[in-house]
Amino acid sequence: MTRSYFTNLQDITIQNLKTAKHSIVIAVAWINFNVYFQLLSELLNRRVSVKIIINNDQNNYGYIGMINVLKDKGALIRPINAFGIM
């Protein structure tokens, strides 16, 4: 079932990520790794596959240290050059 949410997006996202058992796939223009880094690390420690596509831009490269730690733990994080709006 598909649901649409318009409020409390961060809380809903975190609650759904916490329930992941096998894999998560995220495709967003920007992600605040200050908010999601710890949870993503915990998922990787539980052997949940983590794949993330983000914009290849300054906003995301401000988190390059966290991105590299997650990659070292096994996350596949791919910056892409999106033309237009992602």
What does this structure look like?
By secondary structure, this protein is an alpha/beta fold. It has helices at residues 9-18, 33-45, 58-61, 64-72; strands at 23-27, 49-55, 76-80. The chain has a 3-stranded parallel β-sheet with strand order 1-2-3, with helices on one face. Helix 2 links the parallel strand 1 (23-27) and strand 2. The two termini are 23 Å apart. The mean pLDDT is 93.
Q: What fraction of the residues are assigned to beta strands by DSSP? A: 15-25%
- CA-based gyration radius: 13 Å
Number of strands: 3
> Which segments are poorly predicted (pLDDT under 50) over 5 or more consecutive residues?
none
Strand order of the largest sheet: 1-2-3
**N- to C-terminal distance:** 23 Å
How helical, in percent, are the residues? 40-55%
Shape: globular
* Helix and strand composition category: alpha/beta
* Helix/strand order, N-terminal first: HEHEHHE
Average residue-wise pLDDT: 93
Subunit organisation of the chains: single chain
Biggest sheet overview: 3 strands, parallel
Number of helices: 4
